[in-house]
Write a structure and sequence with these properties.
Elements: E1 4-9, H1 16-28, E2 37-42, H2 48-55, E3 61-65, H3 82-87, E4 92-95, H4 98-103, H5 108-120, E5 124-129, H6 133-137, H7 141-152, H8 158-161, E6 165-168, H9 182-200, H10 202-207, E7 210-212, H11 221-225, E8 232-235, H12 242-250
Parallel strand pairs: 1-2, 1-8, 2-3, 3-4, 4-5, 5-6, 6-7
Helix pairs in contact: 1-2, 1-12, 5-7, 7-9
Length: 253
């Protein structure tokens, strides 16, 4: 079975102490994960060592960065390189989140380089793609997402693409309270898998986890995750509430 992943994205929330308390509470829930199930916590940079320490040794629990630089090193004040993440044993990195694209002008070519940096160091990229409302309204979401994948990922080999996790984000459903229906999510996830299959073949495409990221909540996670091409979620606000995120982890297939 494909990896099923509940990925928390804390964004720029919580103090250090609040983050510690949240992780402790979630870990006290003592949810045992099957071999194919993973709980990943994308925390702010200052909390990475704390999260990594708390999660170390917990089966299939891992810390993730929310971003990394497209540069390997140098005079880039305020940036964090993939090599720095590797040096503290961070195994995952979220790349291309819609907020990074919108607020920080990240583009597909830069994200291709960031993805390459992570792959070279054995860090699993969680690569985000998805359409804004204006694209959805004209029914152009499939070609829009295909362009994101082609420009950022489709130059990688089959072996490399197999080490990437995709996260589909309908941008119009992030932080708005709107949620794509389970049917809409499945439709786009199946589309992404077809696009991957057209480039790499069905065997490779069928093994790549595709997460849904758009107002996933404790109340809708089970229905969303039940769809055949939805392999878990990239969760924002609900990941900041221990009881909610525990239910989301429990909703994994």
């Amino acid at each position: 079975m494909r990896k099923q992943i509940a990925a928390a994205n804390w964004k720029m929330n919580l103090t250090y102490q609040q983050g510690e308390e949240l992780l402790d509470t979630i870990l006290k829930g003592n949810i045992g994960l099957a071999d194919h199930q993973y709980a990943v916590f994308a925390v702010p940079f200052p909390y990475l060592i704390m999260a990594q320490t708390k999660l170390s040794g917990k089966k299939n629990y891992a810390a993730a960065a929310q971003n990394c630089s497209d540069q390997p090193a140098g005079a880039y004040t305020g940036e964090v390189s993939a090599e720095m993440l590797k040096s503290i044993n961070i195994g995952y990195c979220v790349l291309g989140h819609s907020e990074r694209r919108e607020y920080f002008s990240e583009h597909n070519q830069s994200l291709a380089t960031k993805t390459q940096r992570c792959l070279e160091l054995g860090i699993t990229p969680i690569f985000c793609c998805g359409e804004p409302l204006s694209i959805r309204e004209v029914d152009a979401q499939e070609s829009y997402v295909e362009a994101q994948l082609k420009e950022s990922l489709f130059h990688f080999s089959a072996e490399e693409i197999s080490r990437i996790v995709i996260a589909y984000e309908p941008i119009w459903a992030i932080g708005t309270g709107k949620t794509a229906t389970a049917e809409q999510a499945q439709e786009m996830h199946a589309c992404i898998r077809r696009q991957l299959a057209s480039k790499y073949g069905s065997q490779v495409a069928d093994a790549i986890p595709i997460l849904y990221g758009g107002s996933v909540k404790a109340g809708n996670a089970k229905e969303l995750f039940s769809r055949p091409d939805v392999d878990g979620g990239l969760v924002g606000g609900a990941s900041l509430v221990a009881a909610d995120f525990l239910k989301i982890i429990e909703s994994l297939k």
